[in-house]
Structures are given as C-alpha cells and as structure tokens.
Amino acid sequence: MSPRAAILIVCDDLLFREALRNFLLAAGYSRVDVVATLREALARLRSDGYRGVLIGLPLKLLSSRRLGRVAQRRQPEAKVLLLVSANDVSTINDASFVYVIKERAFSTLLDLLAQS
Fold first, then answer.
1. Is 1 among the domain residues?
2. Residue 82 has what pLDDT?
C-alpha cells in the first residue's frame, strides 16, 4: 500500500484518540499526528499540511466548529470531519461539516477519508 498523506486528530479523549491513531496507521496512513488541545491544533494547522483533520472536541463549547472553520480556511484541500458522541447528535445544527459518530467511527472513517 502506498503511503497516504498525513492526518491530524484533535481529541481530548486520550483512549479514543490513541485507538483512532493506531487504526489509521494500521490502515496505511504513514503519519497520524494527535493533539489534545485547541492551541496545539492551531499550531499544527499553521505549520503542517494535512489530508484529513478529525476534530473530537466537545460540541457544547463550539470549539469544534470554530476549529473546523479554521482548518477549512488554512487547509482547503483537507477533509475536515467532526467526531461527535451519539448523545450529541441532537444538538447538531450546522450542516457545513461532515459529522462522524464516535461509536461508529471505525466502521465509516476510512470511506469518508477516501472520498474527495
């Protein structure tokens, strides 16, 4: 399998982000960067290029959507996906992003990243 472009995971849940990182590495992505905070994510988006940006910060704080907009502006070629828990689905009212339910992420994520 040829190496794929880098992926950035922004998630405050240590176990989930590490599991997702390992999953993507096993799927053939050669570089998967993980960060836990908004500040770290902004620094990475300024300095590195990504094919995909996966954001799993709490929607209640609106930081996920704000970071998503920044990622779309700084890296227009990147696929930006917001990771949400099943409990948060009812609070989604912004259709400008693709949302991935964390509990189903491992079964859908590769297909979503492969779409252009």
1. no
2. 92
